[in-house]
Amino acid sequence: MFKALLRKEMMELLTGFSGSRKQKRSFASQAILMAILFLIVFGSMGFFMYQIATVFAQLLISVNQTWKFFAIFALIAFGWGVLGSVSMAYGHLFRAKDNDTLLAMPIPPRMILLARMLGLYILTLFMQLMIMVPVLIVAIMQQMLSPLYIILYVVGTLLLPLLTIVITCLLAYLISLIAAQLGDKFKKALTVVLTLVFVGVYMVFYPKLISGGIGQDLDANALAMKGMEYYGFPFYALGRGLAKEPLWYLIYVLVVLAAFSLVWLIMARSFLRITTTHKGSKKAVYVERKASVRSQNKALLDREWRHFINNPMYILNCGLGLFFLIGIAVYAFIGKDTLMQIRNAIGVGSLLVFAAWAIIYFITSTVDITAPSISLEGRTIWQLQSMPIPTWNILLAKLKLQWYLCLGPVIIAVAGLSLVLQLGVWDALLLLALTLIYCALQAEMGLFFNLLMPSMDWTNETAVIKQSKSVLFTMLLSMAFAGVVALVGFLWAFYVMEPIIYLCIIGAVGLVLNILLLLWLRRRGTARFESL
Questions:
Q1: Nearest CA-CA partner of 275 in 159, 179, 339, 406
Q2: Helical (H) or strand (E) element with 408
Q3: Of 82, 99, 208, 284, which is least surrounded by CB within 10 A?
Q4: Is the dihedral of CA 443, 448, 454, 456 positive or negative?
Q5: Contact 409, 332 (CB under 8 A)
Q6: What is the pTM of this model?
Q7: DSSP summary character for residue 280
């Protein structure tokens, strides 16, 4: 029975990546598409981590403290996994649409929960391999691991997502316990608020744990790992274990398995009660009001807004970057000293504008509200198709939602950075213009990929929001584009032209891409929507 449950989880995962079952695509074309996606992910992230790991490895080998190398990068991979899975754990575990169907079958609830946790494990493992694989390559090239300890490193990497799941599942469990006692309206708000609070606390204390581990200066005694044996004990044990101390490795394995088993057993005891308790909202009382007349476009935009705001998983997975943009402005004033050091190192002028734009654009690349918007219509898409509404107006409403939602946070982020970095008025306006151009491009690109790769026969909205190819392509290609633009600028362009000229070229390229995508959406995109 458990094998069947696990097979179902894997099929849902693959369906999320491969798209709708109705699409007549050959296995070979899907395999090639997925291979390209994975190469983009591992290529961009892996190269960056390889460079960082090489620097750390050479430093730590010189002081004969290789265990700290493995502990630091295990901690970094753990943090990356938490940040990627925290926003989907609650919906994946407790609010899957087929929970009621599975619970009606003669299947122990603990097995359903375990299968869902292992599905979450696969996604977390994929994210953490982007860090742990380059680290392994560096460790082998620097001769830090013998063949036996290479195997132990692989096993330790496979266990690491279990530790990540412990944290994210505890948060999901806390949300579910409180949400089970609330009405639907408060339940949705609570999910968003608690997750944002957790992410905020995590973003404050996790960097401090890293900085406490690697010290303040990169010298022989810098990587002192102060407090790591207390606050990051599993990573400390893993580092010691891979530095040829088998007892510490055994402790790491036992701690991870014990923590995962304990959380699973605790959650399993109340899984049935939580998933079957749906305390409804208060009964609506009719109040006579005058109906407001709205234009067709406003009604469509309001429909998109309600769909977004009433789905916590949609907000947290596709709109989390909006909160990070506001967080940039807050951090700009809190961490003013750090930013001023960066300003003094880079200098005043267009080069500083470029650095600020790269940071903001990297964050806005995580805002992909339009990327699953077509897929989320699901089997009810015929309702929109059958209405006497121009198809372009439907697509335009989806674009407007992301455009309008990004406008306020972008202005706040740009204003905060401009004030702290003491940018001139024209530099601040240039930064704002570049950011808005690429925010618009992000929305259009998301809708473009979703029309090309829709997934309409889903059973869980979280799978569409988190796992679909359109979401992954939109976010990852945006990040890759930002990385390429930055590398070209710093490695070549700034040596042959003024930074202001390069910024103007970036802006012109963004405008051209915006126009081309809008034309495609207006002509070919509407036809594809009507054929879904």
A1: 179
A2: helix 391-421
A3: 284
A4: positive
A5: no
A6: 0.72
A7: P
